[in-house]
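Obj.: predict assembly geometry.
Materials: sequence records (below).
Method: joint structure prediction, all chains together.
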Amino acid sequence: MSGAQDTGPGARLKAARRAFKQMFGIPDFERYCEHLREHHPERPLPTEREFHAMAIDRRYGAARPRCC
Amino acid sequence: MLAWAAVALLGAAGFAALALNHGEPVSAVWLVTAALCVYAIAYRFYGRFIANRVLRLDDTRPTPAVRHNDGLDYVPTNKWVLYGHHFAAIAGAGPLVGPVLAAQMGYLPGTLWILVGVVLAGAVQDFIVLFISVRRDGKSLGQMIKMELGPVAGGLALVGVLAIMIIILAVLALVVVKALTASPWGLFTIAATIPIALIMGLYMRLIRPGKVIEASAIGVVLLLGALFLGRSVADDPSWGPLFTLSGPALAWALILYGGIAASLPVWLMLAPRDYLSTFLKVGTVVALALGIYLVAPHLAMPRTTLFIDGSGPVFSGKLFPFLFITIACGAVSGFHSLISSGTTPKMVEKESHMPLIGFGGMLTESFVGIMALTAACVLDPGVYFAMNAPAAVIGKTAVDAAQVISGWGFTITPDLISQTAADIGEKTILSRAGGAPTLAVGMAQILAGIVGGKAMMAIWYHFAILFEALFILTAVDAGTRAGRFMIQDLLGHAYKPLGDTQSLFGNLVATVLCVAAWGYFLYQGVVDPLGGINTLWQLFGVGNQMLAGIALLLCTSVLIKMKRERYAWVTLLPTAWLLVTTLTAGVQKIWSPDPKIGFLALAHKFGAAAAEGKVLAPAKSAAEMQRVIFNNYLDAVVCGLFVTLVVLMCLFAVRICIRALGDPKPTAMELPGGPVGAAP
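Observations (raw structure tokens):
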């Protein structure tokens, strides 16, 4: 959750958008890129299209039980 | 402290208003307020007690999200955000259906069980399963049972989960069939969700990759369009009949849909529709809560009805044990143990966040159950019974139904039945058991009180049906896929190539098997003249509560292995209650001599008549007699499977616990504490 300490309306809007995405399980491209840059700078960044295709297939591809 | 005393007093005042009134109408606001006070106190005191004393949460231990942060699945998440995420994942159709069916006994029994059940059983289960999964790197329930109770117990649990899944899929599909039979408006809007989801899927994949919110906004607009268009379609002389389907035809349509939907790529239909239904679900729940407070409707259903003696038309059987399996979700739901050991544990940032997420998330779901109960109880009881009693009991016309129902003491005129149907834009409301339509009428009554008045009732009704059917269809799709994986897992042991989840052949075989399994139970329920919900919902309830029993047995074993046996009562108490109610219910469903309750008794009754060449009432031919007999034996076998499973799990758990009690050291398989650098 880096960036959460920043203040100002821009940062706050960004934090809110991120929270909304997380709450509803929407893949977050920006966050993923930040993570890669920070922890795995040697890996190439995916394009937005590649990332979403991969993330959606991962989220729904596994046998995820759904509640009653 | 003073504030908490005030909350306690407010709650007590709510209960006094509910329980002590003598016939004068009570406002639903009291019921909802009393529930909220119970939740607040339970969370503040019992939740904190479990966190600090029983589990001893420790923020210095790194959670799986911290250990494995990958920016994608494992992400440390703000506790309020994760609470919302977890709630959206656990809340489904369950808390909307059970409480509505249980309303036949009056509002008080259901309310009390939901509140006591959630505090002492449901929230405890969700919270502790989340805790033990977080301490085991986010492992799933099956894996944890294998780790802590042994491989045989793990295998048995998987078979049990698969069986419960199949029954859930059948019963959810049945709810949709009951709601859409001979309802062209409803069917048109639900059918429209298929192309709408496809459009959203293509948009999110090809046109604007990943723009889920934009696609969902488009989806909502198109859905509302379909909702308004539906009325004209239903009234149209040539289109109307095309969307007017019988129960069996709808069952076949759903079976076909399930098979095809589960074979499509996930991004095309499953993902877009899941997002759409989640937004709609959360929005509707909030709207309903606001509606109840703004409109403050009176509870029309009595505190208790004569049907607590077991003679009720909606489901048979006495208050004990059947109330406790009819309301599963909302009080305690075994299925949640799969979610609490699914995606949520991979996102927990700190251990101290878990009371809010696990305990608080379940309290919120329980609140949905309370609102569903409220919506059913603000209806005129006559209307409630007209909608929920099977045709075999109340007949097929408004006149017959009004006469039978008035005979029970719930005075209603045929005109009111016909008028209610007209208000909601349907031809009939009779015998639409399954919860969804009843809830929809109740919601329409409440929401129309805020926006639109009587003129909008029909729109609100169909909106409510749409909202429920949408996430049920998503569950059917996702559940069929999950069932397919489990079947492939099992088949792989018999014949290796079938276990390969990448092979088209293996996929097809497992998908067909899964759809055929739930489709069989669905079809059996649709053609059952007693309504199907009668049998299937109770089978589901027994299965779901058994799973909760298994999850709580795991929790108990882990507590004892952690050498916290002093606090084992926290999980032993709900385990014992679940075992007592579900085993009693299971045994009664199989062996009760009353053919209204016991599967075997009904099979024998039909068998004896068939042997004499007679045809008994619901059946119309000798072949149908044979089908009734076979289906009842089958139901008895499924019920027997659940009972056997839980007894075996109990034996495994007892053995492990006795061994752990004799061991002076903790033997739970937790990851060691202490800070660890983030793994790649």
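Conclusions so far: The radius of gyration of chain A is 14 Å.
To do: check interface contacts against the pulldown list.
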